[in-house]
Predict the structure.
Amino acid sequence: MVLIDVKNVTKKFVLKKEKNVTLKEKLIYRGKEKSEEFWALKDVSCQIEAGKTVGLIGKNGSGKSTLLKLMTRIMYPTNGSIKIQGRVSSLLELGAGFHTDFTGMENIYMNASILGLTKKEIDQKLQSIIEFSELEEFINNPLRSYSSGMYMRLAFSVAINVNPDILLIDEVLSVGDTSFQKKCINKLKELKRQGKTIVIVSHDNHTMEILCDEVIWLNKGKIVKSGNSKVVINEYLDFMAEEDGIRLNNQKQQQNDESEIENDEVQLSNEEEKNRWGNREIELTNLKLYNDKAQEIYYFTSGEKVRFKINYLMHKNNEDVVFGIAINTIDGIKCYGTNTEIDNIKVEKLSSKGTVYIDIDSLNLIEGSYLIDIAVHKLDGTAYDYQVGKYSFQVKSNVHDVGICKLKHEWIIQ
Ligand SMILES: Nc1ncnc2c1ncn2[C@@H]1O[C@H](COP(=O)(O)OP(=O)(O)OP(=O)(O)O)[C@@H](O)[C@H]1O
């Protein structure tokens, strides 16, 4: 049975531009305030069946919250229709349906009655609402003294305890500590088992995959794809990784253009200076990444072949030379580092200008963004040129394993 039927829904917002400030403008534009139309949803149709948990995913501003708010009926579509069957409980952005001057207890009564409960019903549920929220000590304090995490505990606790047929939840699970987040996710799983219908907006793709039977991917107000959560989330992640990669490519191209203009004399900003040191007798002038088709690229599929190409200039002849490279996560965890000395490669008779290649057969990293350190130094470690985290690349993968690298493995279950 379909509980939520969204048919050809569009939602237009009118954005008021800056007011006419001068008397002349006021006279000229009288009655015609400057405004711009914005279509947050464009011809969206979907059906949500009873007992299903459905996730709305998409980039910031893609229309997820707008669609959820329309389902809650706190706003209405510009065109199209939304039919809902059953009692709805919603947990939208923090603050909706709560008043900061009232205590936690008073807010429970206020919010639960907005969600359709009588005073008697609330009295019966009061203890379980307070217990789940773990706010016993603070329940008689005004809400304005609550942290955003405490606020969320209370709101979540009310929303799940009003016995709804349909539960609509906007990105709120990320607020609060991890143990409470886990508790919320377990509660949602329990409600799911009880046959409740849940629509949830979140940027946490892992949680969405665990919780949702189906996922709807929105982009620029339109549905790109909907269906099996794993399939749709994978496609969405591919799309995001590609977009990030293209952005990195463009940034890199811009850096290349700028460094060509600056020629060999590099002027370093303070920030760059912190991440680069050495006497520059040998200077690393550039790093480029290539795939196995010799295309310059900064996003890879996990396991793909990659070539790092470092250009150097030798300003002063040196025989004592080690080239090195390291890959780090954006949190600064070293995934891998090596140098020519570790690999027993003797660097002999360098030209005044040349290239060093490092070929990695299989880039066994998990999905994410990575920063690269490159270095040239003496055997004793004295730096000619050491550059930390100036270059980056992106890895995408259909497998959402965790950690910092992929270990080849197989499972044997007996
Ligand atoms: N009340 C409003 N007035 C004007 N524009 C709005 C309003 N609400 C939303 N929008 C715009 O509509 C678009 C979609 O917003 P929405 O909040 O639905 O996106 P979202 O996918 O939930 O994004 P996020 O992941 O950042 O929460 C955005 O460009 C937003 O600025």
In short: The longest strand covers residues 2-16. Residues 13, 15, 38, 40, 58, 60-66 surround adenosine-5'-triphosphate (CB under 6 Å). Residues 229-262 form the longest helix (34 residues). Residues 96 and 369 are 35 Å apart (CA to CA).
